[in-house]
Amino acid sequence: MQQLKKWIVILLCVAFVVTLVACDKEPEEPPKTEPAETQGEGEPSVAPPAREDGVTLENIKLGFVHITDPSDMGYTYNHDLGTQNMAKELGLRDDQIINKFNTNEDQACEAALRE
Question: CA 98, CA 92: separation in Å to the nearest integer?
Fold first, then answer.
């Protein structure tokens, strides 16, 4: 009986080592390619397609409704940072972004969405 327990322990150890070794492979790095043409900073690599409905970055307005204030340093704060980065990346003006903070999830929210 002792002999059988030793063999079971040895087999389990071998299986454990084989599992660890099999999972230790490092992923291969994809081949690196050089860009064909360098773009200036802030320039989009591809021009946005023309839309038939007349919506452009110059005439679009975006609205965000938050249930708290960015000073909470939580979700609303991070969402506001993302909004600011998006505006900077897309070159949007301040009057194109409407933020509603401290809006309850009731009729006040519906009114904020309609504004």
Answer: 12
C-alpha 60/C-alpha 57 separation (Å) is 5
Pairwise CA distance, residues 12 & 79, whole Å: 49
d(CA 56, CA 49): 10
pTM exceeds 0.85, yes or no: no
Residues in CB range of 67: below 8 A, 6 or more apart: 76, 102, 103, 104, 105, 109
Cα dist from 64 to 80, 84, 97, whole Å:
9, 12, 8
Per-residue pLDDT reduced to its tens digit, 58-103: 778 888 887 788 887 778 888 888 888 888 888 888 888 888 887 7
Domains of the chain: 62-114 (3.40.50.2300)
